[in-house]
Amino acid sequence: MDYIRIIPCLDIKDGRVVKGIHFVNLRDAGDPVENARLYEQEGADELAFLDITATVEGRETTLQLVQQVAAAITIPLTVGGGVKSLADIERLLAAGVSKVGINTAAVQRPALIEEAAKALGSRRIVVAIDGRTNPAMPSGYEVVTHGGRTPVGLDAAAWAARCRDLGAGELLPTSMDADGTRAGFDLEFTRKIKEASGLPVTASGGAGTLEHLYDAVVKGKADAVLAASIFHFREISIQAAKEYLSQKGIPVRIK
After folding, report:
1. Active-site amino acid positions
2. FRET pair for 2, CA 20 to 30 Å: which of 76, 80, 136, 198?
3. Closest Cα partner for 115 from 168, 185, 57?
4. Bridge partners, 150 (sequence order)
5. The dihedral sign for the CA sequence 98, 104, 107, 108
6. Is 71 helix (H, G, I), strand (E, B) or coil?
7. DSSP-derived 3-state class of residue 15
8. What is the pTM of this model?
9. Contact partners, residue 5, CB within 8 Å, separation at least 6
10. What is the chain's pLDDT, residue by residue, as a tens digit (255 residues)?
C-alpha cells in the first residue's frame, strides 16, 4: 500500500526558517536544524528545504546549512532553490540530500531535467512547478519562476507532462495564489498537474487546517502534502495530522 507522505517545508532566508504570504512579509520561524530534528521526532515522512531567495539573488543554495540539516535527520531530505546545473545537483546529493528540486533552471533549460535523470536517476529529481491562475492558459494556470515573481507564458499542465517525458521523478506544484494564505490548497491546480503527468505529486501552498490536508489527497489527488506555517507555529503537529488522516481512511505511517 502506498502511504500518503506528510512533509514539513523549511523555507530558508539568511540561515533562518521563515514563512510569509505569497513569499513576502516573512516571519521568523526558528532554527533550521532544530526544526528538522523536531519534525523527524514528530513523525514527518520527509523534509523539504527551500532556499527561497537563492534564485532571485543569483546564488547557490547555502550548502553548509544543507549539510547541517541533512546530518541532523535520517528521513529523506529534498532541497531546492538556486539549483542551476547538474554540478549543483551533484553537490547537494554529496552533502546528504535525498532528492533535489529544480524549478527556474528547468524552465529556462528543460534539458537539465533529462541530463540529471539520466546521470543520477529519476527518483532523485523533483521538478517544482510554481503556478498562478491565468484564464488565457489551456489549463487555466501559468508557470511562474524566480520565486513566483516572473510569469513565463507556459501552461502549467503542459509543462508537467513535459517534465514527466524528460525524466522527472516527482512534481511539487505550488499555487502562488494560495501560498501562505492558510485558506487551503488550490485543489484544481494540484489535480491538473497530477492528471497531466501521472507522476507522484506533492500538494503545496495554502494549508491551514487538517481538512485541507485531507482535501489535497481526496480532491487534489496528491500523493503527499507539504505544509509550513501550520507546523512551524505549532498549530498542528505531524502526529495530529496523521491521526486525523488515518481516521478519515487515508493510509499514513504512524509511529
Report:
1. 11, 130
2. 80
3. 168
4. 145
5. negative
6. helix
7. coil
8. 0.91
9. 45, 46, 202, 223, 224, 225
10. 589 999 999 988 888 888 665 555 566 667 899 999 999 999 999 999 988 777 777 767 788 899 999 999 999 999 999 899 999 999 999 999 999 999 999 999 999 999 999 999 999 999 999 999 999 999 999 999 987 789 999 999 999 999 999 999 999 999 888 776 778 999 999 999 999 999 999 999 889 999 999 999 999 999 999 998 888 778 899 999 999 999 999 999 987
- Phi, psi dihedral angles at 154 (to 5 degrees): -115, 130
Residue 247 CA, chain-centre distance (Å), reads 25
For residue 165, give every residue at least 6 positions away whose Cβ sits within 8 Å of its Cβ, in sequence order, or none. none
Secondary structure (DSSP) of 170-229: EEEEEETTTTTT-S---HHHHHHHHHHH-S-BEEBS---SHHHHHHHHHTT--SEEEESH
Let me know the angle formed at the C-alpha of 57 by 55 and 61, rounded to the nearest 5 degrees. Answer: 55
**d(Cα 127, Cα 104) in Å, to the nearest integer?**
9
Distance (Å) of CA 178 to CA 58, 121, 132, 188, 202: 25, 32, 9, 12, 15
Helix (H) or strand (E) holding 93: helix 86-94
